[in-house]
Amino acid sequence: MSALTSIKLTPWLPLAVTGASIGYAITVLTRLPWWTLFFTAAVWTGIGLTLRWGKPTNARYRPVWPWSLLPISLLGIYVYLVDSFGSVDLGAVFFHLQAGMAEHGGAGKMVMAMLYTLVVLAVLISITWLTRHDQRWRLSERFIAITLLAANPLLYGLGQRSAAIVTDDGAWLDRRYMPPPDSELSNPPNLLLLYLESIERTYDNELFGDAYADLNVLGERGTVFEGVRQMDNTGWTMAGMIASQCGVPLMPAGLLHDSQFEPLTQVVPGVDCLGGILAEQGYRLSYLGGASTQFAGKGLFYRGHSFNTVKGKEELVPKLENPEYLNSWGLYDDSLYDFTVQEARRLSTEDDGPWAIVNLSIAGHAPHGFPSQTCLDRQGEFDGQNILYSVECSAWLARDLIERLDEEGLLDNTLVVLLSDHLTMRVSVWDQLTALDRDNTLIMLGDNLPPGRIVRDATMLDVFPTILEAMGLSLNDHRAGLGASLLSDKPTLVEVHGLNVLNERLREETALQHRLWEGLSPQRRTIEESSDEKNSASQVVETPADQAVEVDIMR
């Protein structure tokens, strides 16, 4: 006898389970308050009992499996991703699966995933019970299955990406790629590049009090850039780093990777990035981060792009005075910044040419942040939920680090860049943030950068050439990668085409993906190149409208 036949369920239980689940999904996918899930569950259960769902007058049991089991499971995955991160970025999902998720700090996310799994299983059992006991459900749920498949944004995104294989023009972005120049710096400055995890400039708003105040104080000493928006495939840590250091969105390797069931061995090897350019100029390069360098290919990226020193949790924890002073990701920022000061001292003492330090903080990490003990001593008790507490902590620690380095004279002839790696994901003030026009933090402090504000429509792609020009490097037409220097009058891609157009073109792009991952699939690359030679004439043909704007950005 089937297990579901022997289970004695009264109709109200599966109705209540499905009703509560529908209510919760609605609150996640909309801005309705959390308590509306109880209202939704009550209405759903009331309708079901009134219509005698699961217990019709002429009930006939059939041991069938509902069509909607898979669509419901896929929808559950989508709701989980939205609930966890605020939005679903398929590029992030695919990249992390291929680059590796070892040593991640998302223990809370794992617990949440297990709870979601249990809830989805309960929904599947409930739907199966209703379908087997009620012929009306057997007839209608197959239409529900089709509706759920068609409406699931997760599947829509997969379909869009698959359609890129047969698109008419899969090289729109690649044609706009500008390789960085080989020119030399006459008086190369040092570089301190501080990524402030999820600390977007949107927090500089009266809605959020003084959370961003310390970054505003730093901004008064240098150049503040407003309007650095987030395009697709730049919205997670590695993607933000690659966009701002290589001038390209991070398109996952996908099928270009020869060994689909093995981790990547290189990260975007086909483009010239900040590390390689500075190494050519004789720079000594260091990356320091509190989390593991094994997560999401961070170590592979930095080592593969000419960094001499790459240190994360594994290398830094043994050097802590208290090895137990850790969060779920790794080091707290006060510990990390102490090591950053030590690294700046070491590089400055060696006097073997200019240096560059790239640093990634953790305090602002969604959903609640990881404020360090020095912030707890300064700001008082943390309730474990309020992200603004963590934002204030991150901003103050960054200001304190720069002031410490400045007092020691370690920032002489040094360009300091503070920027967010990406916009934050779902946090306690998510509804307020998403109601605003959001943009990333970008602040530069340097001897040749007068205090002021530059307001431009830009993306993280434009940070790359802006850093190069701020360091004194001459660029071809003020461009590098897909970006344009914000210190010049050169229009950015988003200024010319708009963010929606860029995102649409990105979903159709294949040539840029091949460029990023050149070397991982030599046979496929050879085939593509031979095809390019045969069809070179057709690949430069564009519509008249496309050619008209091309004069402004590609001359």
Please tell me about this protein's structure.
Helix 2 runs antiparallel to helix 3 and helix 4 (69-85) crosses helix 7 (135-151). The protein is elongated. Helix 12 links the parallel strand 3 and strand 4 (309-311). The chain has helices at 3-6, 12-29, 36-50, 69-85, 90-99, 107-133, 135-151, 153-163, 213-219, 237-246, 274-280, 298-304, 313-316, 333-350, 373-379, 387-407, 430-434, 463-470, 493-497, 499-508, 511-516, 522-534, 536-539, 544-554; strands at 190-196, 223-229, 284-289, 309-311, 355-360, 414-420, 442-445, 452-459, 479-480, 483-484. It has 555 residues and is of the alpha/beta class. The chain is built from 24 helices and ten strands. The strands form two sheets. Strands 4-3-5-1-6-7-2-8 form an eight-stranded mixed sheet, sandwiched between helices. Strands 9-10 form a two-stranded antiparallel sheet. It folds into two domains: 3-166, no CATH class; 174-250 and 266-547, Alkaline Phosphatase, subunit A. The termini are far apart.
